[in-house]
Amino acid sequence: MSKSPVPTPHIGAQVGDIAETVLLPGDPLRAKFIAENFLEDVTEYNTVRGMYGYTGYYKGKRISVQGSGMGIPSIGIYSFELIHFYGVKNLIRIGSAGALSDKLDLYDIVIGMGACTDSNFASQYNLPGTYAPIASYDLVSKAVEVAKEQGTDVHVGNILSSDVFYSDQGFEDLKSWKKMGVMCVEMEAAGLYMNAARAGVNALAILTISDCPLEGKATSSHERQVAFTKMMEIALNLA
């Protein structure tokens, strides 16, 4: 694929407007919340499609936050453009997830070391087998260390990036992943990890448990937007 000029079709920024480290919340309003509550000297560089993007400073370090939407196709577009057209080197998804493991409850934090998926996103690479999307070890180890310094408990392990939110099979598919030790389900990390691996840059997903689908527990949409601050603080300290 040839490189296109900037601004891109989805990001209205110029070269240099975006930091080398970008936080990627799925919800653009979470990006806005982070910019307004954690960053200093903030510039809004994107409003295209209502997918807000901001660059500012956190503890003196330049960092950007960009909404990425829902699902692998959406984060696939935003992460690709950030990497290839804006020179981003560290991409950190900060999102919500549904707990599968009995060890997880609402508001617990999960670091996705690996990301299983039912998506066919990897088929574009024409690999002679099954690819295993994983996070960048440097970001995983640093996130764990930051969490310890903050006194925040985190769970590190395998997650699921699903293409389906409302499955025709109900929760039966999730139970199958659970028996393999998969901790939680979300919809983006595997695509992010693959884009980053192909480009030789770093990626990580830090997730907050927003619901426990097998138990019928859930947080509100407002809570998912503004209350997951521990996850945000871990990610911000990775810049």
UniProtKB/TrEMBL annotation:
A purine D-ribonucleoside binds at H10, E186, M187, E188, S210, D211. Phosphate binds at G26, R30, R49, R93, I94, G95, S96. Keywords: Glycosyltransferase, Transferase. Its EC number is 2.4.2.1. GO terms for cellular component: cytosol. The keyword Transferase applies. Pfam families: PNP_UDP_1. Homohexamer; trimer of homodimers. Belongs to the PNP/UDP phosphorylase family. Catalyzes the reversible phosphorolytic breakdown of the N-glycosidic bond in the beta-(deoxy)ribonucleoside molecules, with the formation of the corresponding free purine bases and pentose-1-phosphate. This is Purine nucleoside phosphorylase DeoD-type. It comes from Terrisporobacter othiniensis.
